[in-house]
């Protein structure tokens, strides 16, 4: 059976640092910052004011329109301000700042399991929407939008993404080991929405315990299976998984639902289960703290809004004697390098990695002219020609870039930059060019 | 707590392979061929290798310094160019040649076009071609111990037999890097570890073999194909020259097209061209086509291919759409070629055989008057077979006995003998003749069955004035009289201005006579 997509790379995994550290809940003590935009779409509108007291799970900001998501408080305390704060991209964005009283008094009862028998499909989607759930794999796409495709009957596969192909990250592995039943139930809820779909839980083979746990959890459940996949990056990419499971490659102009697939991260599916069975909104999720620079690598259930600096301090800080070169949110392949750790954890963040060795620094020194070796072409999971795309950008031939080479199909997975022996910053060029082309298009259509 | 961090765009990790590492591995892969070349060819070859490599690196170093460029000579690419150039040279070249060749390769073909990654043709091949046009004689000097000799591929092109095992091992006369075994070892290792693209090497080798089989006139004769594959730098070209990153296309489909182009051109040059070095030219032509291929052969992203479009519609993807395009292209070329070949073979097989038999019978009859049928002798055949590939006797040059037959008349009485002999010492290829003798050893006549000599000169041996000198004589061995006008029984007047061809004919006749006297009459079995 097909166990992988075409192309891809295999970076050093480094998962041994934290793979066996059980999930630990962390309750922060300092102030909590909740950005209004933690998802793709319009930022949420604040519904609290300075001085309001809030409880855990209380809504701080309301979704603005359909493609948007609510933001909930993860602590109890007083709203200190609604003001611009630095967020992880390094820029300032509007945030609700809550003075944490350390009590974590819940707004409602999130421990009692409710009966969901007879809950309609529409009701499931509504509960997901009310819980402010977004894709926890990294992109942060509002989940209720994904769950409401035009034609639910045409959905063939609901894919639970437990591949976790990024190096260092292990929190989904731990989540699947410890909450396998909850994830299976979440998947069952999703299958309720799609009567013709099969649920497929995809896990890379480097997580045998998780595969075993999920296999046991789906015992006795219908329309569900576990697929073990080859260990390869970007196996956990939406398009890679659909290529493996459904055998369909599709352009970026189409959504997974257009080819009969729904892909959700296992963390998201767990959040769906919490929301539907317990009425718990999304205010905490799992996150891996790892890297050679971390004193105690581990997996945490963190509350949104916690400062990364506080989390790191709690976890023992930087390893004695280690000189950390780079801190990033996420793994080394797609992670965002942080300028400062004094930024809040957002819903879709799944890791904090501290690197002692910044390979980009070395790469800049090793950079040579392109040899046309074609490795980037071999590894591109989209079947693009990165070398030619970069050439087209250099000579500023945007027509060739966009129409001949289909440069906008790039998913910015970073495989080409990773493999390039000449150390050309290919992915960076494509990110910049894509942004430029899209901006120009927006300007043209606006005129 | 530490507060300053590096900021950069993702990805934040890199593969271990750098440009310098890849180049070093290619250098390593060339070592087996270099070592065997030096061991087989001696100290002079070592000097050629060292000088070529050193002057390539030195040229790049000088260029960097003079033009204030960053130091690129350290990356090893210049050393690879120099070494590759040395491997394509004869071990006898004057030591000035590797130096000049490397300088041209690095300074002109590489640095003038922008250095590493920018050259439009393979620098090593450019250096070789520069030397070929400038020092043609020295480049083609493959003499052994001062005695002039030809490379196996030149022999092969002239239609002579070659020793494939020696060619494969690299102990045959030829360029320094002529050991197919060592080149394959290095090349296959590069391919196995993903340094070079299989699409290129195997499409070059595949299409070359195919065209050779198709148009070479020997069909899928394994010995013929292997001999052509093992000689003339085909393996070197496929694994080290054509697969050079800089001058080959980037996409898989483009690489296949490029490889097929080089293979087909190489085979055509080999079959119809005038030089044994054709393969380097076909690689260069492939290099020149690379920008064109890269511009127009652009495979679509997976999501836009036919197979994906069907899948997006929710249709079942038919089986034929799941096969990669490059595989389809190669397989269909092979199928069409194979089919065409077998058709041609079947249609022409009987006719060709018939014609050959008739032609031979005609020439046999013409030198054995009175014979209506020819019988062979088991013992003679065994003897001839056992000597196959070796020249007959000594003192006849490279003369080979092909066949010996007994001519009989209607009543079954022996009226004479016909001995078919080939001499490989012709001015331009083989001279084959049928020698007819009466039972006492008197010559009935000589008839040529293969003669490709220069018209007006060597070809004049086929004129009666020369040929008929043999008739009626019964010497055991003839000698050549270049002055002309000889009256001695055992002397033959040479065709003036064609002493080589005349000598080859004489050698063939003498070998035939020797066979007659030692085997047919002497009973040496």
Spatial strand sequence of the major β-sheet of chain A: 1-14-13-17-15-16
CATH topology of the largest domain in chain A: Rossmann fold
Q: Count the strands of chain A? A: 17
**Fraction of residues in helix of chain A:** 25-40%
Report the radius of gyration of chain B as a whole number of Å. Answer: 29 Å
Question: Could you tell me the mean pLDDT of chain B?
Answer: 85
The largest beta-sheet of chain B arranges its strands as 1-2-3-4-5
Number of helices, counting only DSSP H or I runs of 4 residues or more of chain B: 19
Cα gyration radius of chain A (Å)? 22 Å
Largest sheet of chain A: 6 strands, mixed
Beta-strand residue percentage of chain A: 15-25%
CATH class of the largest domain in chain A: Alpha Beta
Superfamily at the CATH H level of the largest domain in chain A?
NADH-ubiquinone oxidoreductase 51kDa subunit
CATH architecture of the largest domain in chain A: 3-Layer(aba) Sandwich
Q: What sort of overall outline of chain A do the alpha carbons produce when their principal axes are compared?
A: globular
Q: Pair with the most extensive interface?
A: A-B, 80 and 50 residues
How does this structure look, described?
The complex is a heterodimer of chains A (about 450) and B (about 525). Chain A has about 450 residues and is an alpha/beta fold. Chain A is built from 14 helices and 17 strands. Helices cover about 30% and strands about 20% of the residues of chain A. A six-stranded mixed beta sheet of chain A has the order 1-14-13-17-15-16. In chain A, strands 2-8-7-4 form a four-stranded antiparallel beta sheet, with no helix packed on it. In chain A, strands 11-10-9-12 form a four-stranded parallel beta sheet, sandwiched between helices. Chain A is globular and about 60 Å long. Chain B has three domains: about 20-300, Ammonium transporter fold (Orthogonal Bundle), CATH 1.10.3430; about 305-355; about 370-520, no CATH class. In chain B, helix 2 packs antiparallel against helix 3 (about 75-85) and helix 3 crosses helix 4. The interface between A and B is large, with 80 and 50 residues.
């Amino acid at each position: 059976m097909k166990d992988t997509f075409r192309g891809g790379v295999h970076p050093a995994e480094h998962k041994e640092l934290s793979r066996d550290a059980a999930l630990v809940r962390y309750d922060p003590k300092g102030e909590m910052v909740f950005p209004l935009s933690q998802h793709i779409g319009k930022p949420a509108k604040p519904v609290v004011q300075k001085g309001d007291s809030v409880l855990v799970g209380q809504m701080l900001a309301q979704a603005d329109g359909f493609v948007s998501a609510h933001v909930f408080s993860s602590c109890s305390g007083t709203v200190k301000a609604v003001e611009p704060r630095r967020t992880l991209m390094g820029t300032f964005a509007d945030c609700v700042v809550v003075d944490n009283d350390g009590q974590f008094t819940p707004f409602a009862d999130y421990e009692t399991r409710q009966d969901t028998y007879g809950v309609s499909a529409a009701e499931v989607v509504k509960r997901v929407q009310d819980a402010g759930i977004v894709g926890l794999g990294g992109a942060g796409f509002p989940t209720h939008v994904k769950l409401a495709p035009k034609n639910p009957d045409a959905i063939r596969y609901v894919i639970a993404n437990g591949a976790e192909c990024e190096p260092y990250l292990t929190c989904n592995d731990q989540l699947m080991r410890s909450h396998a039943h909850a994830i299976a139930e979440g998947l069952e809820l999703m299958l309720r929405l799609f009567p013709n779909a099969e649920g497929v839980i995809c896990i890379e083979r480097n997580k045998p315990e998780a595969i075993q746990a999920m296999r046991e959890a789906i015992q006795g459940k219908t329309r569900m299976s576990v697929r073990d996949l080859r260990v390869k990056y970007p196996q956990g990419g939406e398009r890679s998984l659909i290529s493996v499971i459904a055998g369909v490659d599709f352009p970026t102009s189409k959504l997974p639902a257009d080819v009969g697939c729904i892909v959700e991260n296992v963390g998201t599916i767990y959040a769906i289960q919490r929301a539907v069975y317990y009425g718990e909104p999304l205010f905490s999720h799992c996150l891996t703290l790892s890297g050679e620079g971390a004193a105690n690598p581990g997996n945490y259930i963190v509350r949104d809004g916690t400062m990364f600096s506080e989390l790191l301090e709690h976890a023992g800080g930087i390893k004695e004697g280690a000189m950390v070169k780079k801190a990033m949110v996420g793994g080394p392949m797609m992670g965002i390098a942080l300028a400062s750790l004094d930024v809040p954890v957002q819903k879709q963040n799944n890791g904090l990695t501290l690197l002692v060795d910044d390979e980009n620094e070395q790469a800049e020194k090793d950079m040579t002219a392109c040899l046309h070796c074609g490795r980037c072409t071999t590894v591109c999971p989209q079947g693009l020609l990165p070398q030619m795309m970069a050439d087209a950008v250099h000579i500023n031939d945007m027509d060739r870039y966009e129409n001949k080479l289909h440069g906008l199909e790039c998913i910015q997975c970073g495989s080409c930059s990773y493999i390039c022996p000449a150390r050309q910053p290919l992915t960076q060029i494509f990110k910049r060019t894509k942004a430029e082309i899209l901006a120009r298009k927006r300007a043209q259509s606006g005129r | 707590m530490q507060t300053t961090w590096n900021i950069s765009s993702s990805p934040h990790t890199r593969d271990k392979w750098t440009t310098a590492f890849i180049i070093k591995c290619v250098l390593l892969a060339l070592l087996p061929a270099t070592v065997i070349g030096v061991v087989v060819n001696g100290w002079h070859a070592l000097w050629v290798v060292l000088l070529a490599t050193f002057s390539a690196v030195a040229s790049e170093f000088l260029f960097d310094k003079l033009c204030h460029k960053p130091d690129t000579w350290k990356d090893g690419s210049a050393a690879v160019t120099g070494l590759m150039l040395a491997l394509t040279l004869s071990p006898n070249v004057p030591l000035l040649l590797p130096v000049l060749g490397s300088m041209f390769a690095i300074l002109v073909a590489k640095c003038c076009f922008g250095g590493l990654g920018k050259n439009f043709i393979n620098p090593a091949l450019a250096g070789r071609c520069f030397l070929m046009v400038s020092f043609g004689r020295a480049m083609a000097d493959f003499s052994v111990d001062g005695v002039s000799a030809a490379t196996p591929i030149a022999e092969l092109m002239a239609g002579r037999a070659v020793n494939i095992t020696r060619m494969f091992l690299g102990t045959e006369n030829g360029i320094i890097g002529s050991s197919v075994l060592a080149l394959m070892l290095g090349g296959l290792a590069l391919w196995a570890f993903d340094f070079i693209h299989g699409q290129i090497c195997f499409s070059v080798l595949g299409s070359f073999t195919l065209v050779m089989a198709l148009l070479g006139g020997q069909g899928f004769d394994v010995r013929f194909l292997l001999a052509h594959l093992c000689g003339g730098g085909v393996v070197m070209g496929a694994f080290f020259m054509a697969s050079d990153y800089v001058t080959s296309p980037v996409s898989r489909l483009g690489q296949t097209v490029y490889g097929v182009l080089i293979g087909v051109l190489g085979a055509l040059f080999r079959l119809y061209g005038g030089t044994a070095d054709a393969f380097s030219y076909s690689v260069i032509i492939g290099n020149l086509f690379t920008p064109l291929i890269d511009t127009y052969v652009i495979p679509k992203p997976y999501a836009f291919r036919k197979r994906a479009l069907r899948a997006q519609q929710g249709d079942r993807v038919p089986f034929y759409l799941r096969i990669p395009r490059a595989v389809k292209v190669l397989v269909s070329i092979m199928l069409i070629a194979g089919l065409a070949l077998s058709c041609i073979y079947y249609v022409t097989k009987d006719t060709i055989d018939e014609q050959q038999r008739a032609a031979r019978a005609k020439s046999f009859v013409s030198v054995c008057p009175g014979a209506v049928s020819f019988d062979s002798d088991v013992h003679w055949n065994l003897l001839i077979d056992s000597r196959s590939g070796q020249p007959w006797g000594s003192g006849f040059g490279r003369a080979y006995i092909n066949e010996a037959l007994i001519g009989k008349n209607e009543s079954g009485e022996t009226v004479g003998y016909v001995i078919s002999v080939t001499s490989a010492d012709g001015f331009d290829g083989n001279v084959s003749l049928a020698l007819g003798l009466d039972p006492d050893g008197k010559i009935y006549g000589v008839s040529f069955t293969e003669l490709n000599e220069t018209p007006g000169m060597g070809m004049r041996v086929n004129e009666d004035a020369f040929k008929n000198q043999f008739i009626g004589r019964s010497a055991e061995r003839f000698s050549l009289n270049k002055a002309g006008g000889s009256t001695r029984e055992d002397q033959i007047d040479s065709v003036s201005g064609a002493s080589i061809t005349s000598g080859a004919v004489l050698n063939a006749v003498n070998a035939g006579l020797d066979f007659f006297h030692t085997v047919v009459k002497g009973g040496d079995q």
